[in-house]
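Annex B. Sample input.
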Amino acid sequence: MGKMKIRLFPDGTIQMETEGIKGKKCTDYAKVLERLADAKIYTLEKTDEYYQSEILEINENQQLQE
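Annex B, continued. Sample output.
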């Protein structure tokens, strides 16, 4: 399960950091925060997790539902 850390500064700046969210999915979280805060993303720093692939594990006893 991934985490988002959000910091609000006195000058109105918002800083967000994701942890445990691999691949480009982390940018989706940034876009949601951008819309919720009615803000604009000025810089986007990519961590090593951005370049990693997310691994999906399926238990043999679970059935996939459409």
